[in-house]
Specification:
Layout lengths: L4 E3 H17 L1 H6 L10 H13 L10 H15 L2 H18 L4 E3 H17 L9 H14 L7 H22 L1 H6 L4 H17 L7 H4 L1 H4 L19 E9 L11 H8 L3 E9 L2 E8 L2 H8 L3 E10 H8 L13 E9 L2 H9 L4 E4 L8 H11 L1 E7 L6 H10 L4 E4 L5 H10 L7 H14 L1 E7 L4 E3 L2 E3 L4 E5 L2 E6 L2 H11 L7 E6 L5 H14 L4 E6 L7 E5 L1
Parallel strand pairs: 7-8, 7-9, 9-10, 16-17
Antiparallel strand pairs: 1-2, 3-5, 3-6, 4-5, 11-14, 11-18, 12-13, 14-15, 16-18
Helix pairs in contact: 1-3, 1-4, 1-10, 3-4, 3-5, 4-5, 5-6, 5-18, 6-7, 7-8, 7-10, 8-10, 17-18, 19-20
Length: about 550
């Protein structure tokens, strides 16, 4: 193997090896959770994001680095999940953006690509925080780039990257108090180093296994039930149409080409449009009833590098659980709301309160950018309000909102199921003013308190509390207020801490694992102790949180 260059084959091996290394250590990364409850899913998010880039490389030209890079770019953007996944996707996007102009790169060009990746990753965060994976990326890249000489090999580059990255990761608790208090290093930074360890293994020529082993969902033959669309069927969902278009001088003035103009003109053919330009290559994703018209339009500007058209009636049935495809509203609406929630009871309640679509966002199942795009397309509205249920999916929702064409998508600052409940209960479209609707809904979120009970996954000291693993902790946002060995006692102390006696409404979602005896006892206690408040009991069946308590 040539250790001075990276071509398409080596880059494929790097990506596969990086994903394998990440998967082998996914639980360790998940356990590096700052907050001591069992909701750590950084490892899952990073794996899903990287898999989104890797799963399509089987179809890329092995020898040409640019083709592999372009294939990866699209996949990581749509597959990004969670904040760590969005940052990882932008890092890889920046690297691949630099690779896309080359059939192979040397070590200096590799260093330049990683610098582009760091810049792209930082740009994806509105307020970058040091002591996170961003710091590890930046410091490791700077050290590796500073130590490039004419004799530096690719192996040397990644060895230097890991050397500096490990030092940087060890320092993250010194830069971020929450890490120091929790006694952990940054989980996203740890994930990046596992990926790069996989890169190093690949460039050293170590066996990375069969592509199909790591990209099983992409390589496996689909068992398609063609009876779902027969001679009596009527097309409802249209065709999911995706392609890479190489602009050519023979057909267009590339320097004067306007992607915005293309997006405007191609949007008349369908919905859920995503359009991205990398150099002289255009990536298009659109749901349309007339794929032929889309292709005919696009081919006026160049030629196709890749092309995929899928009947969404079949696609919908196959992937409704896995990809969370959603049935499209036949009639265009003025306003619609999409919420994220977990638990059958919570989801049912959100739908009863008026959510047009509720995305299931349970543990290890943070919605990807692609899932949000599918939901935006399906809801079919001029203005779409989005209610995330935790901070970790906020960035994915925002990225999807930036990519989606044809609707005014507004992601509200909702951080919990309680926030979603308050927003939906207050939602009122009657003013017919999107700004006023968003402001009033956000005010309802901000004026309420959402408190939760869950079980601690480790020992720690927080807010003067000596918390032991297994204790039941009560918290608001990330502020731990109570800890107790008895769950019902924790609930009682938490209600006092959040001044439930001053509230007019108390709503409780009971989670999985809270049996009927405990539910009745808690209900009786709240009704007797806070008789001036209206009390609503709901069986949420949510994971992680034994109790979600909403106070207004």
């Amino acid at each position: 193997m040539n250790d001075r260059k990276i071509d398409g084959i080596i880059f494929k091996n790097m990506l596969v090896s990086g994903l394998k290394c990440l998967k082998l250590n996914v639980e360790e990364i998940n356990e590096l959770n700052v907050f001591p409850i069992p909701d750590g899913d950084t490892g899952y998010n990073m794996c899903s994001t990287l898999h989104g880039g890797v799963k399509n490389i089987l179809n890329a030209d092995d020898g040409d680095l640019s083709n592999v890079a372009k294939t990866v770019q699209d996949g990581v953007l749509l597959g990004a999940r969670g904040n760590s996944g969005v940052i990882l996707s932008q890092m890889l996007y920046g690297i691949c953006d630099e690779f896309s102009a080359h059939k192979s790169v040397d070590v200096s060009e590799l260093g330049k690509a990683f610098s582009c990746g760091v810049k792209s990753a930082y740009a994806s965060v509105s307020v970058p925080v040091e002591g996170t994976m961003l710091t590890v990326l930046r410091e490791a890249t700077q050290y590796a780039n500073t130590n490039i000489s004419k004799n530096t090999t690719v192996s040397d580059y990644f060895t230097n990257f890991l050397k500096a990255g490990e030092r940087s990761l060890a320092r993250t608790p010194e830069l971020l108090d929450v890490l120091k208090e929790a006694g952990v290093v940054d989980s996203g930074g740890a994930g990046v180093l596992y990926i790069v360890r996989g890169f190093l293994s690949a460039v050293r020529g170590e066996d990375v296994g069969d592509y199909s082993e790591i990209t099983a969902t992409a390589a496996a033959t689909k068992d398609i039930d063609f009876s779902l669309f027969n001679e009596n069927s009527v097309m409802k969902y249209g065709y999911c149409t995706e392609f890479l278009l190489q602009l050519t001088h023979a057909k267009t003035d590339i320097a004067a080409f306007s992607l915005d103009k293309m997006k405007k003109e191609i949007s008349v053919f369908g919905d859920s449009l995503v359009a991205v330009r990398t150099g002289s290559v255009i990536k298009i994703h659109i749901h349309t009833l007339t794929p032929g018209a889309v292709l005919e339009y696009a081919q006026a500007f160049g030629e196709f590098l890749t092309l995929k058209i899928e009947n969404m009636t079949l696609q919908h049935n196959e992937t409704i659980e896995k990809k969370q495809q959603f049935k499209k509203n036949a009639v265009r609406k003025k306003y619609a709301t999409i919420a994220v929630a977990n638990g059958k009871g919570v989801i049912a309640t959100f739908k009863e309160l008026g959510a047009d679509i509720v995305i299931d966002g349970g543990q290890g199942n943070n919605p990807s950018v692609e899932t949000f795009l599918n939901a935006f397309d399906a809801v079919n509205a001029d203005v779409i309000f989005v209610l995330p249920d935790n901070n970790n999916i906020f960035m994915a929702a925002q990225e999807a909102a930036k990519l989606f064409e044809g609707s005014d998508v507004r992601v509200l600052n909702a951080k919990s199921a309680g926030d979603g409940y308050c927003a939906l209960a207050a939602l009122d479209y009657s003013s017919d003013n999107p700004d006023e609707i968003a402001a009033a809904t956000q005010e309802a979120i901000d004026c309420a308190v959402c408190a939760c009970i869950s079980q601690s996954t480790r020992d720690l000291n927080s807010n003067g509390l000596d918390i032991k693993v297994g204790n039941y902790i009560g918290f608001v946002d990330k502020d731990i207020l109570v800890a107790d060995t008895d769950r019902q006692e924790a609930v009682k102390h938490l209600l006092k801490k959040v001044k439930a006696d001053e509230k007019s409404f108390i709503i409780v979602f009971f989670g999985k694992g809270v049996d009927e005896v405990e539910r009745e006892a808690t209900t009786k206690y709240i009704k007797n102790s806070y008789s001036d408040a209206e009390f609503y009991r709901l069986d949420g069946e949510q994971e992680i949180y034994n109790y979600i308590i909403i106070l207004q």
